[in-house]
Amino acid sequence: MDNALLKQHEPQSVLANADPPAELLHQLQPYDLSEMLREMDEKKRLKWIAALPLTLAAEALEYLEPELQYETLNHLDGNLASMLLKQMSSDMIVDMLLAVHPLQAEKMLKMLPEDYREKINALMRYPEYTAGSLMTVDYVSARAHWTGEQTLRHIRKVGGEAEIISYIYVTGMRGELVGIVSLKEMILAHPQTKLADIAKKDVISVPADMEQEEVAAILSRYGFYALPVVDRQNRLIGIITYDDVVEVIQEEATEDIQKLGGSQPLSEPYFKTSVWSLYRKRIVWLFILFVGGAYTSTVLESYQSTLDKVVSLSFFIPLLIGTGGNTGSQIISTLIRALGTEEVKFRDLFRVIRKELVTGLLLGISLGIIGFFRAELMDVSVAISMVVSLAALFIVLWSSLVSAALPLVLHRLKIDPAVVSGPLISTLVDGTGLIIYMSIAKAVLHL
Amino acid sequence: MDNALLKQHEPQSVLANADPPAELLHQLQPYDLSEMLREMDEKKRLKWIAALPLTLAAEALEYLEPELQYETLNHLDGNLASMLLKQMSSDMIVDMLLAVHPLQAEKMLKMLPEDYREKINALMRYPEYTAGSLMTVDYVSARAHWTGEQTLRHIRKVGGEAEIISYIYVTGMRGELVGIVSLKEMILAHPQTKLADIAKKDVISVPADMEQEEVAAILSRYGFYALPVVDRQNRLIGIITYDDVVEVIQEEATEDIQKLGGSQPLSEPYFKTSVWSLYRKRIVWLFILFVGGAYTSTVLESYQSTLDKVVSLSFFIPLLIGTGGNTGSQIISTLIRALGTEEVKFRDLFRVIRKELVTGLLLGISLGIIGFFRAELMDVSVAISMVVSLAALFIVLWSSLVSAALPLVLHRLKIDPAVVSGPLISTLVDGTGLIIYMSIAKAVLHL
Predict the structure, then answer these.
(1) Which of B164, B260, B332 lies closest to A333 in CB terms?
(2) Are residues B42 and B118 in the same domain?
């Protein structure tokens, strides 16, 4: 990264000055500034913020944690605090207000003009993880009969408050969304062109209660910069910008990874999650898997006489069932992701099974051969080595079949296939793997 | 999604018309159009494309697979094909040319004007997964002494070819990047304002050889819509837009998930990956884990006399080692993601270990209690139930310690912590879990 100014002003030297160097402040990126503000003591932070241009200060504030945002605004001069708050985007204000104590939120809300306060209050009522919770009300709307020139004048007047001006939303008499004009097209067109002539009337919009995953999928599919959110009457109530969607995509990936590891996803960052909450997220699946996995004991008990006769069979139990679990884990991690990105669908079931069985056959033969020689290295008979080898082959095949079919079937049944974690598939094939192993042993060793 | 036009024109009825309905075509989203084009036979596809406005046709083409793009361009009238190709963004052209046969690429390149052809040729030389491979050369640059009005005129002239106009890149005499002006700020400022007065001079840019993961991290950290790419002399050579970064984020998440499942990540979509290639990606880790896991057999063999005396001890082997693996899998999936998003660092090692050991203690006690009663349900002595219960507790604790430390230590050693997959951690704690189990058994049962 080429960040010459930051290099010139080493953070330490900058931080040593209580007075912010004016030239630096105007040039800094809001994000870099926020990193500096976070490291300062409160007195200095307030002094710096007061010295900054308003828009830059508001943008830098948006990168701080909600609690720190609140503390800062609360201790600033009331007038400045209220101007800063107004300048912040509405989705950031909502995030802050939802994170602090309701009484503190009340106090902040009083700083806003009444009509804006109402908008914020409305935004706060949308449930988490929906389009409504992601949207901002700071957009630019215009009327269909306006010319490009008129619209530009309007943007100059109100655009400072808008989060983005890349799209101009054309609304009708009742506030209903009737079209979208991209700023690019408007600028490329003649200044006297009416918005009605260049607006896309086939608008892609989302309802406020749509799940954030779906919003992210739509925005990234179309490659838009922002998506309009409408109510049931198709009235424009907000927009969702791409940066919020990037965050959603990251969150969803984190969730998938945690589920695949066999845990309920954490709702907070790792260090903010208490031990008790980690425990509760994890014990659910550990308990299910422990109780489910206990059937392996019953399976082995039923083969007690076989094990009594050839105790060395038990030596290979961990290796063989582990291999079944590993094979399954590889397959489900591929398929769950492919289902998530809609690369694989239920109608592909037989294609997937065939593909996984053929791959499983190759893998099973390879591991079967290695298994034979591994067993031969120990003090066991050739017959037992044969049993281990065959068991490895059939366990891999069986695990491939189960792991290929299960995620697709669950997806079909509208159950999130991500419940099939690595641990779950391992547990599922552990017991059945033992049955395969013991049956082969009984057949080959004539027990 | 509210897509009234699509609803009016059911795809079937639209597709039944060989002639594209003009009103529909001008209003459709490029993505939706591309979905329709993909379903058509070639004759109809060519007819539709010829009837579409050029920019819309080019945008829709960009959503098609490289092979289909090539086929379409190759069979269109040469003049139209060349205009369409010029209209496509340069990163898309590069993707297409790299996907088809070199001779076909050569043929396409000949359609482009010479200077543009050189640019494309240069773009094609950047290695995959670097900033250079993601960038497009279709941006708007301007000079510092231009006024807002002048710049707008310039954009009207050249902006049609640009992928975005949200940022205007200010370059110096030698093409070096000296500042960035957001279109928003330029429009909000007085038309006579010089770019030099509103440009951010402390530019965040990336070198062409930066890894795409890092590019994605920078873009999402700052919330930019696009990042400029510069050469060693700080000359602007291209820009990377957020939609490419979203794709990178998705790819990286897919890779992490596949690695976590214990497989080398696939480089192609699932159905494009051959069985042989699936085999090669998977056998590596399966082989390592099989050979590594084989030490469990040696461990058990060394306890042969114990197992001979109390064969029922073997009943609980799969359950206990499975639980160790499950605990580990939960922890590493959380930590690997937290390391990836830089939420956790090596300096947090002891904090992480403490947190995981306390959580592990709670989990171990819970599972120990359940384990005792589970064993009691079977035909074994109370002493054995005690052994199972204690083993569950200590195996969970041990697995927590290993799984908490290992990813952080690897990260510190500059080894991708994602090599610690669920299967790897399971295999690691399988053998040690058996030692814990057997040692407790020998101590409690006085064997």
Answers:
(1) B260
(2) yes
Specify the CATH number for the domain of residue B54. 1.25.60.10
Q: In this structure, are residues A121 and A107 in contact, taking their beta carbons and an 8 Å threshold? A: no
Give the mutation candidate from B8, B201, B319 for the A interface (greatest A CB count, under 10 A). B319
Q: Is residue B338 a part of any domain in this protein?
A: yes
Residue-level pLDDT at A111? 92
Hey, what are A322's tokens?
């582990």
Indicate the number of domains in chain A: 3
Best to test chain A binding among B6, B202, B388 (most A CBs inside 10 Å): B202
pLDDT at A2: 44
Residue A105 belongs to some domain of the structure: yes
Q: Which two tokens stand for residue B140?
A: 């708007």
Residues A94 and A218 in one domain: no
Residues in CB range of B364: below 8 A, 6 or more apart: B392, B393, B394, B395, B396, B397
B301/A211 Cα distance (integer angstroms):
54
Q: Do A263 and B184 touch (CB under 8 A)?
A: no
The residue of chain A with its CA nearest to that of B278 is A359
Tell me which chain B residue has its CA closest to the CA of residue A261.
B330
Chain B residues near residue A226 by CB distance under 8 angstroms: none
For residue B252, tell me if it sits in a domain: no
Q: Give the helix/strand (H/E) hosting A172.
A: none
Q: Last residue of a domain, which of B95, B125, B155?
A: B125
Across-strand partners of A236? A230
**Are A81 and A54 a contacting pair, CB within 8 Å?**
no
ipTM of predicted assembly, 2 dp? 0.77
Tell me the per-residue pLDDT of A362-413, one tens digit each, with 9 for 90 and over. Answer: 999 999 999 999 999 888 899 999 999 999 999 999 999 999 999 999 889 9
**Contact of B121 with B90, CB cutoff 8 Å:** no
- For residues A120 and A145, membership in a common domain is answered with no
Give the range of the structural domain holding residue A118, as residue numbers without chain letter.
Answer: 4-125
Residue A399 lies in a domain: yes
- Do residue B350 and residue B216 come from a single domain? no
CA distance B332 to chain A (A): 7
